[in-house]
């Protein structure tokens, strides 16, 4: 199933702030959150003013949150559209369909939105290591409604499992997907020999199938 692109528009955003965001996302993804300073971000973004990040975003943590929220909003817009289409057809009827609603919008965002999607999955992995609870604290109740819709369907489809088991497996599921999407992103960006394998529809299908198997295992 294809998901339509639903862009998120920032009103009044300057070219400088866009360049800073894109540069910071790349540096954080490549080196980690702690290892990168705001001065480095400004310098790599071609800004003579070393205080450019502070001027546009305030603090480094505020910049990190902005990158996270920006990407999450864009993925969530795609995820809501994907789920609405599934639900209109009476689905998701299987765990695999519900899992696809989690994975496909993230893949589409990374592949189709070069301005905002590049490096985002690797940024998420680095962010999870920097502060394991930051993603949930920042997104919960505001920017993860589509993901929660997916989990609601998964709980229904996995009703034979105790709720505690479901929750534990959802944690494994999230880590599995995050790690593989970050690896996929890196391989596609670096142009190594495995690019064709990762780009294929079969690879995406296998990612969905194996993630579903993790949830459905006896």
UniProtKB/TrEMBL annotation:
Residues covered by the HTH tetR-type domain: 14-75
Pfam family, one: TetR_N
Keyword field contains ATP-binding: no
Domain of life: Bacteria
InterPro entries documented for this protein: Homeodomain-like_sf, HTH-type_TetR-like_transc_reg, HTH_TetR, PsrA_TetR_C, Tet_transcr_reg_TetR-rel_C_sf
A GO MF label: DNA-binding transcription factor activity
DNA-binding listed as a keyword: yes
Annotated keywords: DNA-binding, Transcription, Transcription regulation
PANTHER family, per database record: HTH-TYPE TRANSCRIPTIONAL REGULATOR BETI, HTH-TYPE TRANSCRIPTIONAL REGULATOR RUTR
Name of this chain's protein: TetR/AcrR family transcriptional regulator
Protein source organism: Novosphingobium olei
């Amino acid at each position: 199933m294809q998901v339509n692109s639903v862009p998120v528009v920032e009103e009044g955003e300057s070219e400088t702030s866009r360049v800073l965001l894109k540069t910071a996302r790349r540096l954080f993804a490549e080196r980690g959150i702690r290892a990168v300073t705001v001065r480095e971000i400004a310098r790599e973004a071609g800004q003579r003013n070393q205080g450019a990040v502070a001027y546009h975003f305030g603090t480094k943590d505020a910049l990190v949150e902005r990158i996270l929220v920006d990407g999450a909003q864009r993925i969530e817009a795609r995820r809501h559209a994907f789920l609405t289409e599934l639900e209109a057809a009476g689905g998701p009827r299987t765990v695999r369909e519900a899992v696809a609603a989690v994975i496909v919008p993230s893949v589409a965002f990374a592949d189709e939105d070069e301005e905002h999607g590049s490096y985002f999955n690797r940024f998420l992995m680095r962010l999870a290591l920097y502060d394991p609870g930051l993603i949930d604290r920042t997104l919960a109740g505001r920017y993860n409604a589509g993901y929660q819709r997916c989990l609601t369907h998964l709980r229904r489809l996995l009703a034979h499992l105790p709720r505690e088991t479901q929750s534990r497996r959802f944690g494994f599921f999230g880590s599995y997907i995050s790690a593989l999407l970050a690896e996929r992103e890196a391989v596609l960006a670096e142009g190594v020999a495995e690019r064709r394998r990762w780009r294929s529809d079969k690879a995406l299908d296998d990612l969905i199938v194996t993630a579903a198997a993790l949830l459905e295992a006896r």
